[in-house]
Amino acid sequence: MPLSLIVSIFVFFMIAIRQWLPDWLKIWMIMTIGAVIVLVTGNISPSEALNAVDWDVIAYLFGVFAISHALFASGISEKVSNWICADSRSIPQILFFFILFVTAISAVLTNDAAAAIGTPIAIAIAASLGISAALPLIALCVSVTVGSMFSPVGNPQNLLIVADGHFTNPVGVFLEWLAVPALISLVFTLLWFWFCFKRAPKGGAPEHVTPDEQTMRRWPALLATGLLCVLVLTDSIAHDSDWLPDLPLGALSLIAAIPLFVFSSQRVQLVKEVDWHTLIFFVSMFIVTGAVLKSGALQEWLSPWHDQLGEPILVTSIAFFGSQVFSNVPLVEIYLNLLRDHDVPTLMLLSGISTLAGNLFILSAASNVIIVQQSEKHGVTPFQFWQFTRYVLPVTVVSLLVCYLWVAFLVSVSE
């Protein structure tokens, strides 16, 4: 077994038992230790490590973190959470509006953006209901993952599939093939967490997370958010047209964040408040994953089934279980390179299953890690590793089954 794969498993194991480790040892530190090991041992060279990092994702997250902090510091996040948690609302109403809100952000601005923006709102819901923050935060994880299925920009693996599939109407294709299973999964998510919220013991609620003082004006934060929405939607709609330049998401995010740095007097503070620890986690994760890919372990693992990689059962199995070991984005990238026939049903099944694979472990989706890191940044203890899996498992099973059956149904109808 290659050392890089051993390191990857070691990182997974350390994060799984983190609740028994010293409190100062954070997820980003564990991943960074893994990156240092593969670099020091020569499993990946410094130049290869730099190339392995997806700097577009890093740039996108930088802009999103700046915008999410501006929304928080200007009091906009608090206003949204106060509206969702209005006194007249019941638990299912609070859950409905919360899930609807983060799903919309996830579909338009990616699941990572929804994770960053939704974290303080989830904490506020916990404070309003008088329960531990863990449950609303886990509901946020599930909602942003399922919500990202709706659109071609919902998550990084969707972007890879769109680029490979050369769809003339990527928005329409995703809505046709994945909107129904996403909707059914969200309805089940609502019902499941309503049941869990009703049974949640009172106590252990976090303090209502609010900025110490409103240090930023609201209109730059709103302008940056609106600009990011417009840029991402326009880029998605005009994906295959020649009338607009095809800009990467990272560039769109940085452009959208410009009003914050131009019109805010708190520029230095804004840079300081960017979640640098999460950015370090992602850089380290790309390096560890790059070392695993360089070893050829994933390619060798898939090679015995090379001729059957388009079979629905195989696509589902490899996309789900492979995403737990190698992460969904590199798995999808290699899978696309090995596929012989890049037909729409196979690509949509690959997209849906690799996305839903994020609802199993904390490390299964990058958005889960963002929520953990953002919670700790706000001084709130998030969920534990196995606590997360216990709550998301029913949603995972139902959503996987629904996604597979819906794609199979559309294939049978079209034949």
Provide an overview of this structure.
The structure is a single chain. The chain is mainly alpha-helical. Helix content is 73%, strand content 0%. The protein has 20 helices and no strands. Helix 8 packs antiparallel against helix 10 (170-199). It is globular and about 55 Å long. The termini are far apart. The mean pLDDT is 87.
Which helices and strands occur, and which strands form pairs?
Elements: H1 3-16, H2 27-40, H3 46-52, H4 55-73, H5 76-84, H6 91-109, H7 111-129, H8 134-147, H9 156-165, H10 170-199, H11 218-237, H12 249-263, H13 267-273, H14 276-295, H15 297-302, H16 312-326, H17 328-338, H18 344-356, H19 366-377, H20 385-414
Helix pairs in contact: 1-2, 1-14, 2-14, 3-14, 4-7, 4-11, 4-12, 4-14, 5-7, 6-7, 6-8, 6-10, 7-8, 7-19, 8-10, 8-19, 8-20, 9-17, 9-18, 10-18, 10-20, 11-12, 16-17, 16-18, 17-18, 18-20
Would you kindly provide a brief summary of this structure?
With 415 residues, the protein is mostly helical. The chain has one domain (3-19, 26-414).
From the structure above, extract its key features.
415 residues, single chain, 20 helices, mainly alpha, 73% helix, globular, 0% strand
- Shape descriptor reads globular
How many structural domains?
Answer: 1
Q: Helix fraction? A: over 70%
Order of helices and strands: HHHHHHHHHHHHHHHHHHHH
Poorly predicted segments: none
- Portion in beta strands: under 5%
Assembly state of the chains shown? single chain
User: Mean pLDDT across all residues, rounded?
Assistant: 87
Main beta sheet: strand number and arrangement?
none
Distance between the termini: 43 Å
The class by helix and strand makeup works out as mainly alpha
Helix count from the secondary structure assignment: 20
* Count of extended strands: 0
CA gyration radius, whole angstroms: 20 Å
Organism: Roseibium album
Membrane topology: Multi-pass membrane protein
Family: Belongs to the CitM (TC 2.A.11) transporter family.
Transmembrane segments: 28-45, 57-76, 91-109, 121-150, 177-197, 218-237, 243-262, 274-293, 313-336, 348-371, 391-413
